[in-house]
Amino acid sequence: MVAVFNKELLSWYLITLKLRETLESAVPTSSAGAPMLEFPEQPQQEQEKQQQTPSDSLQIVIEGDGENHEDEETRSPDFDWVVSIKKKIEQAGQEDEAGSWSKLSIYRVPHYLREVDDKAYVPQIISLGPYHHGKKRLRQMDQHKWRCLHHVLKRTNQDIKLYLDTVREIEEKARSCYEGPINLSSNEFVEMMVLDGCFMLELFRGVAEGFKKLGYPRNDPVFAMRGSMHSIQRDMIMLENQIPLFVLDRLLGLQFNNSDQKGLLAQLALIFFDPLMPTDEPLTKSDRNRLESSLGRAATFDPLSDQGGLHCLDVFRKKSPALRA
């Protein structure tokens, strides 16, 4: 049998056989001998990468979630407000631990009381302490304060530096008695305490011992028990017009060259304020005689020994049953 082939068709047939042999020799066979064709892995790897990419990016976001949340909180409009509140709470705790409230004893009159009758709570003649210090209408008494201090130093033959140094030692303690910040320098505050304190002590001693004995003339405009004395006494029992008793006690100790004048200051204060006491229980004649007889020597009779005292108003209140009620 003779087969006639097309030359061109035969050529393509031979080429196809040759390609097949080449491919079969390069492709591994299975255990069954059938050729195993492996498709390129690149598309599968790319697919796996694409599947992994979202989880990787998600993991990055999760890891940075805390920082992003913190940044958002920091940028929150309420962030600064909350921080300021925390600082105020912390400051209040520090002040409470420092015991500043326990030292406070001379308060300011609340504004709602002033609105009713301001004159009832404001000194009319003299300022004592820092609250009304330097007010124009009260400066007229300043010249009498300086005159009083001159009398004290002349009578005791002491130097003013002794008084200034003594008060400076207790300046911080004295400042803590007053409510709110005191806008006076250290020198101004100490000067005020010495000047006002000595003035008060001269009034106390003048009423108890006699102003003439202290060196004041009979017609003195202030220290003569005339005219303005009652108004001065009234100003001295106003809440905002007080000086701590321990300051007065130290100044009195200097005048007597004795730092241990137990009860003497309270005695002098009670005698001075006796005319203002309610009539239902004034200072008894016996008590007054005992008070006056103990002046000028070591004091042993202290009518407030079991009560103590913060300032003149406190002494007046504790002695007065009407005010105690």
From TrEMBL:
Comp. bias intervals (Low complexity): 40-54
Ranges for region Disordered: 30-56
Entry superkingdom: Eukaryota
One matching Pfam family: DUF247
Transmembrane parts of this sequence: none
Name of the protein this chain belongs to: PROTEIN putative (DUF247)-RELATED-RELATED
Record-linked InterPro entries: DUF247_pln
